[in-house]
Write a structure and sequence with these properties.
202 residues; 2-enoyl-CoA Hydratase, Chain A, domain 1; four-stranded mixed beta sheet; 11 helices; 10 strands
């Protein structure tokens, strides 16, 4: 369900449940939190991606009904990713929805395929977003646009996400991971301390 590939200092974490639109269970979120914590001090760059045509539909529906939608594990995952001293890149292979937003928002860079869509239907579903998600979203795209997604329930296209500043680049599906690896090149060539220092300054 969660696949980790290591190539020297480059860690690639893949959500691998394409038959369920990479919907996340509690066990998958626990694995992600563990990998992110383990990457501190070991990975020089980390790429987060998915298989299939959807990055993640958010919480698995059965698990959400059982309480996963409001579980603090979502915040643990995004917090562990945000705390990493290395360069982190979300390579969004498709649509990003719901609680999975937090993982992408916690990354340093986001690139997406042109067919991706972005939505976070907490208003409609009656849940609050995880605490850090609105803060990170507003920091990227501004408070009014954050409200467009979180309060007005708007599903935005990849082109709009690029215009908003939610993603940095668009890449065709076959070029997505190569581009993410290319963006990691300088970080992989630097010492971890140097990369961490620059990230800390920013």
């Amino acid at each position: 369900m969660i696949r980790l590939d290591r190539d020297g200092g480059l860690w690639t974490v893949t959500l691998d449940r394409p038959d369920k639109a990479n919907a996340l269970t509690g066990a998958m979120l626990g694995d992600l939190a563990g990998i992110a914590s383990d990457a501190a001090g070991k990975a020089q760059a980390l790429i987060l991606t998915g298989t299939g045509k959807v990055f993640s539909a958010g919480a698995d529906l059965d698990a959400a009904r059982a309480g996963l939608a409001t579980d603090p594990v979502w915040e643990q995952v995004s917090g562990a990713i945000a705390a990493l001293p290395c360069l982190t890149i979300a390579a969004l292979n498709g649509t990003l929805a719901g609680g999975a937003f937090g993982m992408a928002l916690a990354c340093d860079l986001r690139i997406a395929v042109p067919s991706a869509k972005f939505f976070y239907p907490v208003m409609k579903l009656g849940f609050l977003p995880q605490p850090s998600d609105p803060v990170r979203l507003a920091a990227l795209i501004g408070p009014a646009r954050a409200k467009m997604i979180l309060m007005a329930g708007q599903k935005i296209t990849a082109d709009t996400a690029l215009a908003y500043g939610l993603v940095e680049e668009l890449a065709e599906p076959d070029a997505l991971l190569p581009r993410a690896r290319e963006l990691a090149t300088d970080a992989l060539a630097a010492t971890p301390a140097h990369a961490a220092a620059i990230k800390g300054m920013i």
